[in-house]
Write a structure and sequence with these properties.
With 370 residues, the chain is α/β, with parallel strands linked by helices. It is 47% helix and 14% strand. The chain has 13 helices and 12 strands.
C-alpha cells in the first residue's frame, strides 16, 4: 500500500511537473536532479507574435537562444509563435495553467482580464522607454506588477522594448476631429478607449490578422509598433499615411511571463540566468529597434511612397484631454488599480523635469541650433 501524500508532497509533485521534462523522454524531472547538472531541462515559450517578427519576435527567439548558451544547454526553451500551440492572445492563460512555462507578449493584451495591466506596456501620454524602465526598476513598478499577476500564479518581467511607437497607418487623411467619427481602428490599451470617446470604433485584433483586416476594409486604420516591424508587416502596401506621435504608446516594453511554480522549481543559477536574459534584452532590443526604425523610416518614405504626418494640433489636444479623463476614471476601478495609477503618475512627475532638462533642451539645441 502506498503512503498517503501530504499537501506538501502534492505541491512538490506539481513543481516538478511544471519545471520541465527530460529532453526527448517526457519523464518528470525534479529540481534536485537538475542541480547536479546531469540532465537537460526543456521549457515551452508561447508568444503573441508571428515567427521571427522584427522587433518582439526576434527578441523572443534571442532570449531562448541566450538561455541555452548561458546555461551550457542545461535549459532549452522551445519557442512557439502565435497560433502554433495556443492563440496569440491565449498565452497568459497558457502560462497560468502550466500548458507552457513561459510566454513573450505585451501586457496591454490583458486589459479585458486585468485592466491595470496596460500600465506595464504603456498608457497615453505616459512614460518614455528609459522612464518606464526606471519606474519598474527603481520606482516600485515591479512590485505592483507582481502583485497584479500573483492571483493567476504568473510572474511578469520586462523582456525587450520596441521603443517609442508611431501613431498608426491611416487610409485617409486626419485633418480634424470629424475624421475620427466612425473610424475603424486597431489600437489596444487605453489609447483605444480614448479614440472611442472621440468617435472612432476600436477593433481588437491580434498582430497576425492586421494586414488582412486593413486590406479587406475591416479596419480603416491600424497602429502596431514602429517602422521596422510595421514595414515587415506590409502595411505600407495598403495605407500611405503614417501618423505620429504614438500618443497611445510612448513606450514599447515586451513582457515575459513565467508560471510561478515552474520558475521557483528551477535551480537558483538557472533561474538567475532566465531572469537576467530577459533583463539584458531590454537594452539590446531598444538599441536594435532605434537603429532599425531609423533605417526603415527612410525606406518607407523614399522607396514605398509613404507620407509621415503629424496629428493636427486640434486632434492632439483632444486626445490629451480625453486621456486624462480616462485615466482618472480608471484609477477608481479598484484599490490596486488606483495604487498603480498613482505610482505611475508619481514616477512621471519625478522623471519628466529631468527628461525636459536633459533631453528636450539638448535635442532642440542639437537639431535646430536653438
Amino acid at each position: 500500500m502506498s503512503a498517503k501524500k501530504t499537501g506538501n508532497d502534492r505541491h512538490l509533485s506539481r513543481r516538478a511537473m511544471l519545471g520541465g521534462t527530460l529532453a526527448g523522454g517526457g519523464t518528470v524531472l525534479a529540481a534536485p536532479a537538475l542541480a547536479q547538472g546531469t540532465a537537460t531541462l526543456e521549457w515551452k515559450m508561447v508568444t503573441s507574435w508571428p515567427k521571427n517578427l522584427p522587433g518582439p519576435g526576434v527578441t523572443a527567439q534571442r532570449i531562448a537562444d541566450q538561455v541555452a548558451t548561458m546555461t551550457g544547454g542545461r535549459l532549452r526553451i522551445r519557442l512557439y509563435s502565435a497560433g502554433e500551440l495556443v492563440p496569440a492572445l491565449g498565452v497568459f492563460d497558457a502560462v497560468a495553467s502550466g500548458t507552457a512555462q513561459m510566454a513573450h507578449t505585451a501586457s496591454f493584451f490583458w486589459q479585458g482580464k486585468i485592466p491595470a495591466s496596460v500600465f506595464f506596456t504603456a498608457i497615453p501620454f505616459g512614460l518614455l522607454p528609459h522612464e518606464h524602465i526606471s519606474w519598474i526598476e527603481r520606482g516600485g513598478g515591479q512590485a505592483l506588477w507582481d502583485e497584479l499577476y500573483a492571483p493567476f500564479g504568473v510572474k511578469p518581467v520586462m523582456a525587450g522594448n520596441t521603443g517609442v511607437q508611431m501613431g498608426g497607418w491611416y487610409k485617409k487623411d486626419i485633418n480634424g476631429l470629424e475624421d475620427l467619427n466612425g473610424l475603424k481602428i486597431r489600437m489596444p490599451g487605453l489609447g483605444g478607449e480614448v479614440m472611442r470617446r472621440l468617435g472612432a470604433t476600436p477593433v481588437g485584433l491580434p498582430p497576425a490578422e492586421l494586414f488582412q483586416a486593413l486590406q479587406s476594409g475591416v479596419l480603416d486604420a491600424t497602429e502596431f509598433l514602429g517602422p521596422w516591424s510595421d514595414r515587415a508587416m506590409g502595411f505600407q502596401k495598403i495605407a500611405k499615411n503614417y501618423y505620429s506621435p504614438g500618443f497611445h504608446e510612448p513606450n514599447g516594453t515586451g513582457e515575459a511571463l513565467f508560471n510561478q511554480v515552474a520558475l521557483e522549481g528551477l535551480p537558483e543559477d538557472l533561474r538567475a540566468v532566465v531572469l537576467e536574459a530577459c533583463r539584458a534584452e531590454n537594452g539590446r532590443a531598444l538599441a536594435e529597434s532605434d537603429w532599425e526604425n531609423a533605417g526603415s523610416l527612410k525606406l518607407l518614405q523614399e522607396e514605398d511612397g509613404v507620407t509621415v504626418k503629424p496629428y493636427p494640433d486640434e486632434v492632439l489636444t483632444a486626445l490629451r484631454e480625453t486621456a486624462s479623463a480616462v485615466l482618472l476614471e480608471f484609477a477608481e476601478k479598484d484599490p490596486l488599480s488606483k495604487r498603480i495609477y498613482e505610482s505611475h503618475r508619481d514616477a512621471r512627475a519625478r522623471l519628466a523635469p529631468w527628461s525636459d532638462v536633459a533631453m528636450r533642451r539638448f535635442l532642440s539645441a542639437r537639431d535646430t541650433g536653438a
